[in-house]
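Re: export button greyed out
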Amino acid sequence: MKTIIVVGNGMVGYKFCEKFVAQSNNEEFKIIVFGEEPRPAYDRVHLSEFFENQDAKALEMAPAEWYKENGIDLVIDERVSDIQRETKTIITAKNRVLNYDYLVLATGSSAFVPPIKGVEKKGVFVYRTIEDLEGMLAYAAKLKEANPKARAAVLGGGLLGLEAGKAVMDMGLEPHIVEFAPKLMPRQLDARSSKVLQLKLESIGLNIHLSKATNQILGEDSITGMEFGEDDVLDVEMLVVSAGIRPRDELGKTSGLEMGVRGGIIVNNKMQTSDENIFAIGEVALYNQMIYGLVAPGYDMAGVAVNQILGNSEELMPADIDMSTKLKLIGVDVASFGEPFMPASKGHSVIFENKTQHLYKRINVSLDGKSLLGGILVGDASDYNMLHQVYLNGMAIPEDAAQLILPATEGGAFGSALDLPDEAQICSCENVSKGQICGAIKDGSCEDLAGVISSTKASTSCGGCKPMVTDLVNETLKSLGKTVKNVICEHFEYSRQELFGIIKAKKLTSYNEVLDTCGTGHGCETCKPLVSSIFASLYNVTPNKEDVTQDTNDKFLANIQRNGTYSVVPRIAGGEITPEGLIVLGQIGSKYNLYTKITGGARIDFFGAQLNDLPAIWKELIDAGFESGHAYGKSLRTVKSCVGSTWCRYGLDESVSFAIELENRYKGLRSPHKIKGGVSGCIRECAEARGKDFGVIAVEGGWNLYVGGNGGATPRHAQLLAEQIDNETVIKYLDRYLMYYIQTAAPLMRTAAWLDKLEGGIEQLKKIVIDDSLNIVSDLEHEMQFLVDAYECEWKQAVESEEIKKRFSHFVNSDDRDDNLVFVPLRDQKMPEHWKN
Amino acid sequence: MDTILSQYKTTAISDVAVWFKAGAVNDFFENGGGCIKYKGKQIAVFNFSRTKQWFACQNVCPHKMEMVLSRGMLGDDKGTPKVACPLHKKTFSLETGENLNGDLDAIATYPVKIEEENVYIGFSE
Ligand code: SRM
Ligand SMILES: Cc1cc2nc3c(=O)[nH]c(=O)nc-3n(C[C@H](O)[C@H](O)[C@H](O)COP(=O)(O)OP(=O)(O)OC[C@H]3O[C@@H](n4cnc5c(N)ncnc54)[C@H](O)[C@@H]3O)c2cc1C
Ligand code: SF4
Ligand code: FES
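Workaround output, generated via the alternate export path:
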């Protein structure tokens, strides 16, 4: 049995243990770990979370029992004080002497405190351990008691300093950041991005002082200020020093290991020090002349050391280490990757800056314009992951690299999905990679989307990745020279748009007619609802006309719930409802014992209605003046409103009235996917109109009209179609836009995705809708007006017809109800029993 | 749960002991389904009038064990008549009960006969 002693139980020391335990051939080794801190290793990266709940346990990498269960001896609160290499022993501060076969130094680093006069005064802290944070909290509490407006400074405006700045701000102190360099985050940002970040930080209340060299710390016993020059003083009562790190390399020095000139224990690419039985990993190791102050390289080092000691593989530490970082300062996006600054001789930079929005994006592109070398993102780092992937995998970039960062092409510039690396995880629920999806087509085991889905399980859980899976399958088929016709299903060799045209031209009116005219076979759950939706969009017939070809929710005019019961959602246009209306709703909910909640669409939903009860419930609703809310249809849902100028002191126009008018105009309108609208009375946007398929916002001189937004799986902000237009023009443009969408979109494609795929995008849409470039707007308007005039409440039809009501009985041969249903209590209401499988 | 499923066994015509009268032909919507009750069991009956065929199967979907298949949509998969569950669109062959787009257990199917405008389902008990 050989003994491995690990000195230091920090993040990397722990990772060494974890990776060691995961290996199969570890029986011949025994690990003993020494940690100087009073608790097992914790997640230092998320140290700042300690301020929120002061729960040290929540940060633990693994509980003490974990070490025991895995046969590891963990000794905490005991520092290793010496190494005797000749006898292969270590000595601890408690005078314990132990032998080792292999020694792993994972002693990390400590905060660097510059030798400034007075730095030893009370109230000066570093930011590295839980104990440091406890000390800061206690001190800050005392300060605030004496002076609620107490100020604190952070020395150092780097990654960590800014995080510390946010922490002191959250402690209720007035925060000041003092940086020696003329810019913030000097290692990651260029001067311009630093400027933008500074504006942003100042806007959330951080005070920034750049180019300040601190001469001394003022105060008797405790700090009262910092002095930069003779007349340049900043009064502060607390200071957090965050001026960099120094490796904890004492043991290397005293035992004569080879050291770097400025500290750190030198290691080779096997993580061995100058003594082959001693390894160094993490922030104490000097590799490539560098101390890497990030966990990811430390974790890789731990893996290399484990494999070297166990003799498992020849795995070596790579020469290039990715130093990309994303600042996790709550509320401020900052990221840099690859080479953030690049000399002009190596490539070109594309820079996008918008100081009013605190946005700065820079990407560095190789001289031939083909690859991404690095970049900086401030204010909006949502593209970081994708850009980082493009950089790491050396993927091709668009000819006009600017598209990668320009806001207008959000999401659209990353080229073909096929460019993603094979390992890219496409379906995160089922953990399916791009390689598995494309592989299923390439190796011939699947020939279409349906095959890929059933064999890989991709998109079978939440379905959010389905568009990407579809793209991958289609692109792969194309790359193999197979034609991908965008057909509806095995019964129709047409796209939705083509079928729309055929049905319209031939004036077909029943599903069987369509199938016999241009399809084959007997239909399925894909083409039946699609054809029904086309009928509805062309003739505004309700689902009652041909119920057997409707999707289940349309067939029963209600959304089916997890136990086969249904929900009931009456229309509450614009969210406006009278107290009397609310009372009626309350009475009906209570009479039928329905679970009741306010929906995200700002109206009321009753759940748990049994099929048999639906007609009776709706009869009561209709008698009270309500009508269907079409919550079940691919149709207009709600037009959300804010209260607007009738009550709100900022309102510029009557948003509720307009929302009600729009909701009533388009209610019942069937479309390729659902449609939602919003009307806000001013740019404060309380109705979230820009998150809707159409959004109207009151501005000085009229309404601004936005289109193509949604929440949901892929949130998008709507884009501006027209500015300062009056009510009639809004309706005119909306008629045209919605009708054009209905006629040309693919099935289940929301307006945002449709607008993305529309060649020319919003500019093209403006030409069609406003300038009438296709010469179709008067047709579109007429078609919409026809639909508006043909509207009928389908629930009213249903409750008035004995024939239709038959659809809602559970049994054909009995009036019994479904006795399989089980409800359980939920707070003051009820819910279905959980699924058992 | 298993006790629900154990009530439903595919029945071949040769095993039919009882022909149960489920209702009149026009009690069942054309190209649609309905559910009938027989000895505590729930059976989905489909009037696939487009192909002039009738089918019957268990009403409970083996995916989440809800009594819903009779409310599903009819169709065919390369010629095989099928029903799609209204909850998550798992599809089942109405001939063999096999799950066509997944690996759920097959559902039980029952023979149907039409006599004098009445619909009869065959059970072995
Ligand atoms: C009830 C409700 C949740 C709630 O308790 O608040 C709800 C419930 C359902 N949503 Fe939703 N959504 C509800 C508001 C929303 C919102 C919020 C909003 O409207 O402002 C969103 C995001 C905004 C958006 O759509 O842009 C939303 C995005 C979705 C999506 C994702 C759509 C997308 O484009 O990604 C689906 C899935 C789909 O439609 O394919 C969905 C689908 C569903 C379905 C229909 C799932 C289903 O097939 O069973 C749920 C059944 C509703 C029912 O039985 O009544 N629901 N759903 C809300 C009903 C609003 C209403 O009054 O009609
Ligand atoms: C506030 C904060 C935020 C951070 N944020 C990020 C981030 O967002 N991303 C990122 O990649 N990195 C971040 N880091 C850096 C990251 O935490 C370090 O890279 C990582 O913790 C290094 O791990 P380590 O095991 O090498 O060192 P440490 O975690 O410091 O562990 C070393 C341990 O060894 C102990 N020790 C030292 N000498 C001895 C001895 N002689 N005997 C016994 N025990 C000894 C020490 O007490 C310590 O517990 C952050 C750090 C801090 C402080
Ligand atoms: S209500 Fe909407 S978000 Fe909530 S579980 Fe259902 S589909 Fe998902
Ligand atoms: S319950 Fe039938 S498919 Fe899920």
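Residues 2-6 of chain B form the longest helix (5 residues). The button fix ships in the next patch.
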